[in-house]
Automatic annotation (TrEMBL), chain A:
Its cofactor is Fe cation. The keyword Oxidoreductase applies. Residues 103-233 form the Rubrerythrin diiron-binding domain. It comes from Meridianimarinicoccus aquatilis. This is Aerobic magnesium-protoporphyrin IX monomethyl ester [oxidative] cyclase. It is an enzyme of class 1 (oxidoreductase). The lineage of its organism: Bacteria, Pseudomonadati, Pseudomonadota, Alphaproteobacteria, Rhodobacterales. The keyword Transit peptide does not apply. InterPro entries: AcsF, Ferritin-like_SF, Rr_diiron-bd_dom.
UniProtKB/TrEMBL annotation, chain B:
This is Uncharacterized protein. It comes from Meridianimarinicoccus aquatilis.
Length: 371, 98
């Protein structure tokens, strides 16, 4: 019954199929109270000539090894549901936890999906074979992860909607080096986040309230390899990790860590259900990420500095006020929002100005997952 | 391309959507080789597209590209970088309290 408009010969036929499909979708939606979630990925463009100019010959040996490993696709068979995927009692789940967990799944799915869109675009627009091959492989992994999360969402009665495809979308721009810093960090911190939850649940299986966590170990190995690839890319050009760029690296580290702190605190029930203290979890993830990024970044953040935890707390409080101000509206809402924004900026500056810890970068950046 | 004026062009495109367990992805490719620059906007015409679960759908569509003016392109190049944080898995939710 799932005929698609692509099969239609005439416009009328196409519309008829559309209508039938819509009816089917809405019936299905009513039947299982399907909740429609619009994925909202971002669209990026960058300096593709600069990407093409990358020469990996200085890291060739490590590069070829990594690419060969990604081509062999050790995780190919991993993302399948098997007997480990036990039944999830979505109806019996605490509504607050359910909401937060679904939000977690949707944001993860969107991130994988956006990564896929970005990597695919880089693959398509580039002409340097090393680079296009890498981005093709990474796009494959991201699409696979997105598919896996999508399936978990479907089970929960949440249907992703790709309506953004036919909406007007604006393409923003990132300099290639910012893509390296941000994606490198997001892959490595992604690894640290997934493995920290996985190891914690190995010790405390009673907190594993959904089977998807059992897949986190191999999953995060994909994130790990992607991070390795970006580390090698950065290694090809020493300028990327020296001089004024060290300040950019510090900026990205501070921004990524503090964003994670603020966002994670939006999901208290999720962390309680996992049996982790959100601050403990954050610190564990930052510690691992700092250790990993020593492979390429000449500095790490001093996350044990007295101003660190305090700054994060202030940033989070300011963020709550901004949201409250926005929700309230009017002049008093605007004032609350503006005051909150000023405090958030101040908190960020306070975090950014904590002296960083210097690090002697090794000659070869390659690492293996060890956590 | 003017400093302040926008140009509009049409381009045929192929939209591919995979809604399979193994892969969830969606890509738009311009069939005439049109290239997107910073600040450009793209609208794919026609009804919403969604592949039924388990299938891959590929459709030929028409798209309109709204070219950014020179000034807008420059502005996007200068400011776009700050949106880079959106690539992180934990930064997508708009709601501050759930």
């Amino acid at each position: 019954m799932n005929m698609h408009t692509a099969d239609a010969v005439t416009a009328e036929e196409s519309i008829a199929i559309q209508e039938q499909q819509a009816k089917f979708d809405s019936e299905a939606a009513t039947a299982v109270a399907m909740q429609d979630t619009l994925l909202t990925p971002r669209f990026y463009t960058t300096d593709f000539d600069e990407l093409d100019a990358i020469d990996v010959s200085s890291v060739r040996e490590d590069w070829d090894k990594l690419i060969a490993q990604m081509v062999s696709d050790p995780n190919k068979g991993h993302f399948k549901k098997n007997a480990d995927w036990d039944t999830v009692d979505w109806d019996g789940m605490d509504p607050v936890l359910r909401k937060e967990f679904i939000d977690f799944l949707i944001s993860s799915c969107t991130a994988e999906f956006s990564g896929c869109v970005l990597y695919k675009e880089m693959k398509r627009r580039g002409s340097n074979k090393d680079i296009t091959q890498l981005f093709q492989l990474m796009a494959r992994d991201e699409a696979r992860h997105a598919g896996f999360i999508n399936d978990a969402l479907r089970e929960a009665g949440v249907a992703v909607n790709l309506g953004f495809l036919t909406q007007k979308k604006k393409y923003t721009y990132f300099r290639p080096k910012f893509i390296y810093y941000a994606t490198y960090l997001s892959e490595k911190i992604g690894y640290a986040r997934y493995i920290t939850i996985f190891r914690h649940l190995q010790e405390h299986p009673e907190h594993r309230f959904h089977p998807i966590f059992k897949w986190f170990e191999e999953w995060c190995n994909d994130e790990f390899s992607h991070g390795e690839a970006f580390a090698l890319l950065m290694k090809t050009d020493p300028k990327l990790t020296s001089g004024v760029n060290v300040w950019w690296i510090k900026f990205f580290l501070t921004a990524v860590y503090s964003t994670m702190h603020v966002r994670d605190h939006q999901r208290p029930a999720f962390h309680t259900a996992l049996g982790v203290d959100t601050d403990w979890y954050g610190h564990a993830v930052f510690t691992k990420t700092s250790q990993l990024t020593k492979q390429i970044f000449p500095i790490t953040l001093d996350i044990d500095h007295t101003r660190w935890a305090r700054g994060l707390k202030r940033l989070q409080d300011a963020n709550l006020d901004i949201a409250a101000g926005k929700a309230r509206g009017g002049i008093s809402g605007w004032m609350t929002k503006t005051w909150g924004s000023a405090r958030a900026a101040f908190a960020f500056v306070s975090l950014y100005t904590i002296p960083s810890v210097p690090n002697a970068v090794p000659a070869s950046p390659r690492l293996e997952p060890a956590y | 391309m003017g400093l302040l004026t926008k140009e509009v062009e049409r381009a045929p495109c192929t939209v591919e959507i995979s809604h399979k367990f193994e892969s969830l992805h969606a890509h738009v490719r311009f069939d005439n080789g049109a290239v997107i620059y910073p600040g450009d906007e793209v609208k794919v015409h026609g009804p919403e597209i969604m592949a039924p679960f388990g299938e891959i759908v590929s459709e030929q569509r028409e798209a309109t590209i709204f070219r950014a003016s020179k000034l807008e392109r420059l502005w996007t190049r200068l400011t776009g970088d700050f949106e880079v944080m959106e690539l992180c898995e934990f930064s997508f939710s708009d709601e501050v309290t759930l």
